[in-house]
Amino acid sequence: MSIKLTTQAYCKMLLHAAKYPHCAVNGLLVAEKQKEKKKDSHSTPILCVDCIPLFHGTLALAPMLEVALTLIDTWCKENKYVIAGYYQANERTKDFRPNQFAEKVGARIAENFSEAAMIMVDSTRFTMGCYEPILAIYDHHENKWKCRDCNADCFEDWCEAQKITSALLEGRSYESLIDFDNHLDDLRNDWTNPEINKSVLHLC
Amino acid sequence: LNVLIIVFTEMRDKLRKWREDNHRNSEQIVDVGEELINEHASKLGDDIWIIYEQVMIAALDCSRDDLAWTCLQELKRQFPGSQRVKRLAGMRLEALEKYEDASKQYDSILQDDPTNTAARKRKISILKAQGKSAEAIRELNEYLEQFVGDQEAWHELSELYINEHDYGKAAFCLEELMMTNPHNHLYCEQYAEVKYTQGGLENLELSRKYFAQALKLNNRNMRALFGLYMSASHIAASPKVNATVKKANVKYATWATNQINRAYQVSYARCLL
């Protein structure tokens, strides 16, 4: 029932928030599609292997979100991924609770993937050193979102995630991070962020 | 020596472009601006004052209070008693989250000059920063009754309404902007997005029309192109439309798909160059 994050997924989320500190940002998390549901599948955590940054600024409009979900869904099918989560960082630092919009998008994703998670980024604890995970993870239970404690267990390898995210922040990699908004501004901008993925791998 | 002059001119021109485009790339502005001020102040002439202002605001964004303070002192010295500099001092207080002190600063500007729009807008920004959206919206509406031509304010209000999911009122603000800026494709496109979000067949048809209008004004606006495809597709799929309307919208959607595919092909080709 619970999700775990790889370094690449966590990294790109934080880089997105760092690129637009004065804006709200949001995006999707993808996991590898499970071939079969094993009997005890509910005890194996879902691993979110990548993150697709979507928008910055005004988030609460429908058309471009629908376009993004459609295009990313197609990309997921080609790569045997599934959309497994949604993240959001609000405009105001002190505002780290999910709002109506986040719950709506989260619910929409949960329609296609029952173990979907909604993640809110807590910007008040955002530091260059990344000493602690700054996420609040919400699981969908009986039409309500329940907050789960986020600690090192929520990561495939927290030490690696901490080290690499910090290094990329220091190196200002967020300047070259591409979100879906950037893609709409110029189609050559690649929202899969291959260069940043390479940097993450390089530092592993 | 020539290389240094070229570097200096490039830096100064970069800052000017970012100023003109109202870019909020504060880290870069601080990087370039700090060096320019420290190494090349004498070459800047009167440009230096507007650069101090630009760098100061960027420094506040980057929590560089040391740099912001330096710029503020230079401006205070050169323009004693200036309302514009007073407003910058207020912004510094906002950055330090001393909202009461900042508000008092702006009130003192307004006492001397009740028509000072900058000070009024900063007060509204404080409400926004404190999460007091309803109050910010109310104050901004009052402001716009007096300063009905302030486009920046109309746009800010539309965003505040969108965040509150009050799409009808957001649409009204964008209508004001479209009226006074009929050639601005961005306002058209944003209006279409709001209408689409409002939902319902009538709003979808309106959104399609405005996405189309935005495309007419700028045929490279990808959001308008995608929006045209989405709205036309939804209308065509609606059980409430008759066969003629359905056929027309299928045609629009197909046209949009072809244009989208072409746009991607062109961009891939440009990538390879």
From TrEMBL, chain A:
Residues 3-144 form the MPN domain. GO terms for cellular component: EMC complex. Component of the ER membrane protein complex (EMC). EMC8 and EMC9 are mutually exclusive subunits of the EMC complex. PANTHER family: ER MEMBRANE PROTEIN COMPLEX (PTHR12941), ER MEMBRANE PROTEIN COMPLEX SUBUNIT 8 (PTHR12941:SF13). Belongs to the EMC8/EMC9 family. This is MPN domain-containing protein. It comes from Oncorhynchus tshawytscha (Chinook salmon).
UniProtKB/TrEMBL annotation, chain B:
The keyword Transcription regulation does not apply. Component of the ER membrane protein complex (EMC). The keyword Transferase does not apply. Gene3D superfamilies: Tetratricopeptide repeat domain. It comes from Oncorhynchus kisutch (Coho salmon). It is a peripheral membrane protein. TPR repeats lie at residues 151-184. The lineage of its organism: Eukaryota, Metazoa, Chordata, Craniata, Vertebrata. Keywords: Endoplasmic reticulum, Membrane, Repeat, TPR repeat. Belongs to the EMC2 family. Transmembrane segments: none annotated. GO terms for cellular component: EMC complex. Signal peptide: none annotated. Pfam families: TPR_EMC2. Its main location: endoplasmic reticulum. Residues 86-195 form the EMC2 TPR-like domain. This is ER membrane protein complex subunit 2. It is found in: Endoplasmic reticulum membrane. Part of the endoplasmic reticulum membrane protein complex (EMC) that enables the energy-independent insertion into endoplasmic reticulum membranes of newly synthesized membrane proteins.
